[in-house]
TrEMBL record:
GO terms for molecular function: L-rhamnose mutarotase activity. One of its GO terms (biological process) is rhamnose catabolic process. Keywords: Isomerase. Its EC number is 5.1.3.32. InterPro entries: Dimeric_a/b-barrel (IPR011008), Rham/fucose_mutarotase (IPR008000). It comes from the Bacteria. This is L-rhamnose mutarotase.
Length: 125
C-alpha cells in the first residue's frame, strides 16, 4: 500500500494556534478524511514551522480528489490557509509537496531473505 509524505510551511509565529486547531479537528473533517481513503495520517511540526505529513492510501490522487470534492474540506482549507506561508496553489491541500521515498526498511528486508533472517535471529555480524 503506497505511503505518502509531504511538506508544507506553517507561519512560525502561529505555531501554537496551529497546534491548538489540530487538537480539536472537526468530527466531520475526520470522517471525510477516513471515508476518502486517508489512513494512518499524521502531521509533524518542527519549531521553524516545517510541517511534515504522512499517510497511507491506496491512491493518493483519488484520496485528494475525494477530499477536494467535499464541502467540509473546502471550509477547513479556507480556515487553515492563513496559517501557512508559501502556498503554491492558494490552499494547503493543493500546495502539498510530496517527497520521494528513498529508503524503506521493511521493503529492503523483504527483498533480502538473508537480512530478514539476520534480524529475526539477532545476528548483526
Amino acid at each position: 500500500m503506497p505511503r505518502v509524505c509531504f511538506t508544507l510551511q506553517v507561519d512560525p509565529e502561529r505555531l501554537d494556534e496551529y497546534r491548538a486547531r489540530h487538537a480539536r479537528v472537526w468530527p466531520e473533517m475526520l470522517s471525510a478524511l477516513a471515508e476518502s481513503g486517508w489512513r494512518d495520517y499524521s502531521l509533524f511540526l518542527r519549531e521553524d514551522g516545517l510541517l511534515v505529513g504522512y499517510l497511507v492510501t491506496d491512491d493518493f490522487a483519488a484520496a485528494q480528489a475525494a477530499m477536494q470534492a467535499s464541502d467540509v474540506n473546502a471550509r477547513w482549507q479556507a480556515e487553515m490557509a492563513s496559517y501557512f506561508v508559501d502556498l503554491d496553489n492558494g490552499a494547503p491541500d493543493r500546495s502539498m509537496r510530496p517527497l520521494d521515498e528513498v529508503f524503506n526498511l521493511e521493503a529492503q528486508l523483504a527483498a533480502d531473505p538473508a537480512a530478514r533472517s539476520a534480524v529475526e535471529t539477532g545476528d548483526s555480524s
